[in-house]
């Protein structure tokens, strides 16, 4: 299964679902990572984590463990 | 329209996502007429501003920036309570203003979709239309307003544009509601869901007499954990049971109702924005994007970050010193002036040492607070703060914190007070508390006088490594290593304390680091100045009074009972002899010998007065308590006099230097080499055994490295956590750590 953490430089993906329904998953959904949303990878912090994404016209930073909760389809 | 000025003031609630320019809009609406306070029982800051709209007096409540109205903690519940009028201290808002970032419309409209369900007059302020058009996005405002069924007013908060139209829309929304007009708005949530909530509404009316707010019932069914355990007024057991039943009916395939909510709302947002947004150009690389590329670059990012941190640290650490010295000089001359214009006695001492000293100990923090908050406000307002957290997160997550804790902890190396005030950037309550609790372990500048005195007196300057290049020479001595060791001790203890707290008193899963990286913008001068002023004033008002009161108490303990007859008697004869000798010398013909003799005599007389001051301190309440507690200090290698110094330094660590000066008959001049001498020569009462050995000096320094002897820090913890529990906890755990640390140091040091 491909997750958001697997999206590499210059790649885009479409969210298919967010696993789990605890407060963290809910926060990811609230921030707009809902099914169908297009996300592109922007970069990662100098120490390799967190990661930076672009979606819905803004920049969002997530830790790798959080990005792994977001299942995506590559576009 | 009536011009009835006796009408009750209108209440406006201002809400919005973080980084939308909400503070700027708040300032534009109310100017400087704002008050801050705390909501009872939570750490959320309550900000209310006053203004007049039309002819109506108006209270504007600035609610904390939030992405969603789903409460996950008591702090987030505050916004819901205020909006529903369930907050005891504020009026139910007559109108809600939601500020929306045009460049980021869909995520911002998520919050709007929740606000709509409150069934209150609602006005949307559309900010940053210019940023949106920079990104190549045009917005059809009229169509957006039609689709939403709400007034949408484009504004530019930073240029104060559109504010008049916004206030007109606010008035209109309130008047329409008074006329019974509230546009019918459809909920994005499915019809079966609406029916469930209506059933709960009916049930709550039957059970409680009055129905619970519909919005609260919706939130109860959608809840992810917090509301379930919260003690909410009107949520009685039968309501709870019905809510649980409704929840289970909406849990499909293990997906909680909350997941359904987010998906439904974003679908609604997609419908609302359909035909509203036009991408005029291909996705453009904006200046902000290019800047971000450099500032988060693998190499440049950390370099620039380190440079910025160095500048801030230097400014807070060294830049503030100039102003602190000025304040100390003013306070000193105010004390001298009062001393010269008042008769000797308890009242004079109270004024000079108690009142003026107490005021001084409050004011002396202001330069550091103002300087640090200047930088924090600039970094926050321009958008760099989020990048700083992004860059440092990996490092800080190793100790269970997030990148947002870095700047508060770094500034605590200058002073824990502004550092703790700076933890407001951390939204997660648990992370914020842990940061507050470990911040006082960072080696602040107040510890340095203690370290310098004891290191200079007892640690030999043995060179360990020497390096020489022409005229420049550098060597690492044992003294340097000791000082470095004390810094490391603070940091290591803080890391261990953070890890321990995360496992014991503040448990729970790691909070998410889901952080928006906002577009860069030029910081708004008004917002920055206001933030500095607000922090300084908050410190004076709410921490200052406590610091002042404790300073007076400690002064009283070191002054009373002040039994002059008893203390002065043993010195009367020497004093008389000295006075006679001075008089005799003064009558001698003018010569070099006479001058020399006079200087020597005045030295003697000064030493005598220092001895008298020492005798007073020994018989004071503080001296007695110190002697009584000596058995407790002995295992640390301390005599009762060191104990007294430590007790007297409860208001602030550096006070110990002055107290030791007085108690060892050296006066309170901490610069004097004489104090170092008399510390070296001090012996245990009635013996010729030296008090200070290297292990004792180390034990005192370790104690001061770990203790919470700083009333200002404790007062600011009280203010920031809005509870006495945390300052008491801080003091207890740090004092225990300090005692154990000092005990180990002395007992192990003795073996060598």
Write the layout of secondary structure elements.
The complex is a heterodimer of chains A (75) and B (752).
Chain A: E1 12-18, H1 23-30, E2 38-44, E3 51-55, E4 58-62, H2 64-67, E5 70-74
Antiparallel strand pairs in A: 1-2, 1-5, 2-3, 3-4
Chain B: E1 10-16, H1 22-30, E2 34-38, E3 45-53, E4 56-62, H2 74-84, E5 95-101, H3 105-116, E6 122-127, H4 129-134, E7 137-139, H5 141-148, E8 152-154, H6 163-178, H7 191-208, H8 214-222, H9 226-229, H10 237-249, H11 257-273, E9 277-279, H12 287-295, H13 300-341, H14 346-363, H15 366-382, H16 384-397, H17 406-411, H18 416-421, H19 429-438, H20 448-458, E10 463-469, E11 472-477, H21 478-503, E12 515-517, H22 525-559, H23 564-586, H24 592-619, H25 621-628, H26 630-633, H27 640-648, H28 655-663, H29 673-681, H30 694-706, H31 711-721, H32 725-750
Parallel strand pairs in B: 1-4, 1-5, 5-6, 6-8
Antiparallel strand pairs in B: 2-3, 3-4, 7-9, 10-11
Helix pairs in contact in B: 3-11, 7-8, 7-10, 8-10, 13-14, 13-15, 14-22, 15-22, 19-21, 20-29, 20-30, 21-30, 22-31, 23-24, 25-27, 27-28, 30-32, 31-32
């Amino acid at each position: 299964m491909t997750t958001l953490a697997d999206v590499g430089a210059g790649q885009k993906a479409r969210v298919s679902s967010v696993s789990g329904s605890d407060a963290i998953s809910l926060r990811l959904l609230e921030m707009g990572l809902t099914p169908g949303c297009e996300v592109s990878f922007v970069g990662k912090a100098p120490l390799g984590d967190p990661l930076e994404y672009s979606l819905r016209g803004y920049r969002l930073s997530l830790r790798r463990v959080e990005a792994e909760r977001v299942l995506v389809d590559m576009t | 329209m009536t011009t009835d000025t006796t009408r009750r003031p209108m209440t406006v609630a201002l809400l919005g996502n973080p980084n939308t320019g909400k503070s700027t809009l708040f300032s534009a609406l109310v100017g400087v007429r704002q008050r801050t306070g705390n909501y009872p029982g939570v750490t959320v800051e309550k900000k209310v501003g006053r203004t007049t709209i039309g002819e109506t007096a108006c209270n504007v409540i600035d609610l904390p920036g939030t992405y969603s109205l789903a409460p996950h903690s008591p702090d987030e519940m505050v916004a819901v309570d205020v909006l529903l009028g369930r907050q005891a201290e504020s009026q139910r808002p007559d109108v809600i203003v939601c500020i929306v970032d045009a460049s980021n419309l869909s995520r911002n409209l998520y919050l709007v979709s929740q606000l709509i369900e409150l069934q209150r007059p609602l006005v949307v302020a559309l900010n940053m239309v210019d940023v949106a058009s920079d990104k190549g996005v045009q917005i059809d405002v009229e169509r957006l307003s039609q689709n939403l069924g709400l007034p949408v007013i484009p504004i530019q908060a930073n240029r104060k544009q559109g504010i008049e139209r916004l206030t007109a829309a606010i008035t209109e929304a309130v008047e329409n509601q008074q006329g019974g007009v509230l546009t019918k708005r459809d909920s994005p949530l499915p019809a079966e869901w609406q029916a469930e909530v209506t059933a709960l509404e009916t049930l709550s009316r039957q059970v409680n007499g009055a129905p619970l707010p519909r919005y609260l019932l919706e939130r109860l069914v959608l809840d992810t954990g917090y509301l379930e355990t919260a003690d909410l007024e009107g949520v009685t057991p039968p309501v709870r049971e019905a809510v649980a039943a409704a929840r289970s009916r909406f849990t499909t395939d293990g997906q909680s109702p909350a997941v359904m909510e987010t998906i439904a709302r974003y679908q609604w947002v997609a419908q609302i924005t359909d035909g509203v947004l036009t991408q005029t150009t291909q996705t453009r690389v904006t200046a902000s994007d290019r800047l971000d590329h450099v500032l988060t670059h693998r190499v440049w990012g950390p370099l620039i970050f380190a440079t910025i941190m160095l500048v801030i640290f230097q400014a807070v650490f060294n830049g503030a010193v100039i102003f602190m010295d000025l304040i100390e000089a003013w306070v000193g001359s105010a004390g001298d002036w009062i001393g010269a214009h008042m008769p000797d006695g308890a009242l004079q001492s109270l004024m000079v040492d108690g009142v003026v000293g107490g005021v001084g100990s409050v004011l002396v923090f202001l330069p550091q607070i103002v300087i640090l908050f200047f930088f924090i406000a600039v970094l926050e307002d321009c958008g760099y703060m989020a990048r700083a957290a992004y860059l440092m997160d990996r490092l800080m997550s190793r100790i269970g914190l997030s990148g947002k804790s870095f700047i508060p902890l770094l500034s605590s190396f200058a002073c824990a007070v502004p550092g703790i005030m700076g933890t407001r950037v951390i939204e997660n309550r648990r992370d914020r508390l842990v940061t507050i609790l470990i911040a006082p372990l960072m080696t602040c500048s107040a510890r340095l006088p203690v370290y310098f005195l004891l290191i200079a007196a007892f640690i030999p300057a043995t060179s360990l490594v020497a390096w020489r290049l022409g005229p420049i020479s550098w060597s690492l001595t044992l003294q340097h290593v000791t000082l470095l060791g004390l810094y490391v001790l603070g940091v290591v203890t803080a890391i261990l304390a953070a890890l321990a707290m995360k496992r014991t008193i503040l448990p729970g899963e790691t909070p998410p680091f889901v952080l928006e990286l906002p577009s860069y913008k030029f910081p708004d001068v008004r917002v920055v100045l206001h933030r500095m002023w607000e922090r300084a004033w908050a410190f004076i008002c709410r921490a200052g009074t406590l610091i002042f009161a404790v300073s007076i108490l400690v002064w009283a303990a070191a002054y009373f009972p002040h039994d002059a007859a008893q203390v002065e008697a043993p010195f009367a004869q020497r004093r008389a002899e000295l006075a006679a000798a001075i008089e005799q010398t003064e009558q001698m013909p003018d010569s070099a010998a006479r001058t020399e003799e006079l200087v020597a005599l005045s030295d003697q007389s000064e030493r005598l007065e220092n001895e008298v001051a020492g005798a007073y301190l020994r018989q004071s309440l503080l001296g007695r308590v110190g002697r009584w507690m000596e058995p407790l200090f002995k295992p640390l290698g301390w005599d009762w006099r060191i104990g007294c110094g430590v007790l007297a330094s409860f208001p602030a660590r550096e006070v110990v230097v002055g107290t030791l000066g007085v108690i060892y008959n050296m006066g309170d001049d901490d610069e004097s080499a004489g104090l170092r001498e008399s510390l070296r020569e001090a012996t245990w009462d009635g013996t010729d055994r030296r008090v200070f050995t290297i292990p004792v000096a180390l034990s005192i320094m370790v104690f001061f490295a770990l203790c919470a002897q700083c009333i200002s820090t404790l007062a600011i913890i009280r203010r920031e956590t809005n509870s006495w529990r945390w300052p008491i906890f801080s003091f207890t755990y740090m004092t225990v750590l300090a005692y154990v640390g000092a005990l180990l140091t002395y007992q192990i040091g003795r073996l060598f």
